[in-house]
Amino acid sequence: MGTREDAAARGEGAGDDGFIELEGVEKVFRVRRRRAGRRRREVREVRAVDGISFRVPRGQMVGYIGPNGAGKSTTIKMLTGVLTPSGGRIRVAGVDPSRERMRLARRIGVVFGQRTTLWWDLPLRDSYALARRLYRVPEARWRANLERCVDLLELDGLLDVPVRQLSLGQRMRGDIAAALLHDPEVLYLDEPTIGLDVISKARVRSFLRRVNTESGVTVLLTTHDLTDIEQLCDRVMVIDHGRLVYDGALEGLHRAGGGERTLVVDLAREVPPVRVEGARTVRVEGPRQWLAFPAAASAAPLVARIAAEYPLVDLSVREPDIEDVIARMYARGAAGARGDAGPDGAQAPPVVS
Ligand SMILES: Nc1ncnc2c1ncn2[C@@H]1O[C@H](COP(=O)(O)OP(=O)(O)OP(=O)(O)O)[C@@H](O)[C@H]1O
Q1: 155-170 pLDDT per residue, tens
Q2: Ligand 1 first shell, C-beta below 6 A
Q3: Where in this chain does the record put each ABC transporter domain (predicted)?
C-alpha cells in the first residue's frame, strides 16, 4: 500500500471524478426451470441490475447497500469483470472490466465476507506468498505491505496457523490483508463485518479507514450494518430491485426514510421511564431503557441530557435496519425514491442528497 500520492501517480486515463463509472448498466440472468406437467423448460428472466449509472471519484469510500437480492453482489461481480453486463458501460480506472479482467485484477482487491479467497489448508503466510507470485508483486514492496497489514490488523502470531483453524474475525482480517498486498487502487468489500463481534468489527473498520485515508484506495463497501456506513462512508448509494434509489449522505437517507434510531441506556438502578426532550422511551426492562429518536438527529445532546438527569452507566446507539429505512422510503412515497419507470420506460433518477 503506497501513499495517496502514489495512488494518484498510478492513474491511467481515468478522470478523478469518474474513477469508477457506470452508465445504464444492466444484468439479466436467464433462469431455466421445469414446471410440473410441462415437458419444455420455461425460461425466466431475472433483471438483477436494471439500468444503473453512477461515478465514484478516486479515493472515495462509498457504501453500496440494499435489501437481500437487490443486485449488490452482481454489480461488484461486473466491476471485477467476473460477470459481463447485458447492457450499458462500465469503466474502472479507464478499463472495461469484462474485456480486460486480467489487466484489471492487479489493480483491484476483493473481499467477500461470506467466502474466503485464502487456501483453507495452508497457513496465512503461504496463501500470501502464493498471491505474491500470482500478482508478481516485487519482494520488497510485498514485505512492506505485509508488515503493515500484520501490524494494523493484528495478525502477528496468526501467520503460521492454517486458515481453517482461524476464527471468523481472524479469517476476515486475513482476507482483507490478502486483498491489499498487491497494492490495489480499488477495494471491493462485500459484507466485510458480517458475523463479527463488536471488537473485530471495530478493528476492521479502523483499518479500512486508514487504508482509505493514508493510501488513497477507492473503496466500494456492501454491508447490511449501517454502523459500517456511518463510521466509514461519506456517501451511500442504495440499490433496490436492481435500481439505484438513493445517492447521497447517510443523514439524507434517514431523512428520506424518516426513520428513527434507538438509544439503549443502562442506568445504575430501575427508574420510571426516562423523560427527555428529543426522544421517547419505547421500552423499559429493569435498569435498561430504549429511547427512539429521529435518525437524522445527533445522539450527543440527547446523551448529555440523560447523563445530567439520570444515573447513566452505559449506552449504545442502534441503527435501523436498511430494510426498514427502504420500506419507509417507499411508504412515504419520497419523490422519485422508487426509481419507477416513467411512461417511456425511462427510470426516474435516484433521490440525491
Ligand atoms: N447466477 C445467477 N443466476 C440467476 N439469478 C441470479 C444469479 N446471481 C444472482 N441472481 C439473482 O439476481 C438478483 C440479485 O442478486 P444479488 O446476489 O446481486 O443480490 P444482493 O443484493 O447481493 O443480495 P444479498 O444481500 O442477499 O447478497 C437476485 O434475484 C438473485 O437471485
Answers
A1: 988 999 999 999 888 8
A2: 29, 31, 46, 48, 66, 68-74
A3: 20-266
3-state secondary structure of 204: helix
Residue burial 206-218, b: 16+ Cβ < 10 Å; e: rest: ebbeebbeebbbb
Residue of the CA atom closest to atom 12 of ligand 1:
48
Phi, psi values for residue 168, rounded to 5°: -60, -45
Ligand 1, residues 28, 29, 223: which to mutate, most atoms within 8 A of Cβ? 29
The alpha carbon of residue 249 and the mean position of all alpha carbons in its chain are separated, in whole angstroms, by 14
Question: Which residue shows C-alpha cell 487456501?
Answer: 119
**Pairwise CA distance, residues 244 & 50, whole Å:** 9
Q: How many C-beta neighbours within 10 Å does residue 167 have?
A: 12
Give the three cell numbers for residue 342. Answer: 416513467
Residues linked to residue 247 through DSSP beta bridges, in sequence order: 237, 352
> What predicted TM-score, i.e. pTM, was given to this entire model?
0.77
Going by CA atoms, what residue is nearest to atom 4 of ligand 1? 29
> Which numbered atom of ligand 1 lies nearest the CA of 66?
21
Whether 89 and 123 have beta carbons less than 8 Å apart is answered as no
44 pairs with which residues across the strands? 31
Specify the residue with its C-alpha closest to ligand 1, atom 31: 69
Q: Does 13 have pLDDT greater than 50?
A: no
Distance CA 295, CA 83 (A): 37
Please tell me the residue having the least CA distance from ligand 1 atom 13: 48
Q: Whose CA is nearest to atom 16 of ligand 1?
A: 71
Q: Which of 68-72, 107-111, 136-140, 223-227 has the lowest mean pLDDT?
A: 223-227
Q: Does ipTM come in above 0.95?
A: yes
What is the rounded end-to-end Cα distance, in angstroms, of the chain? Answer: 32
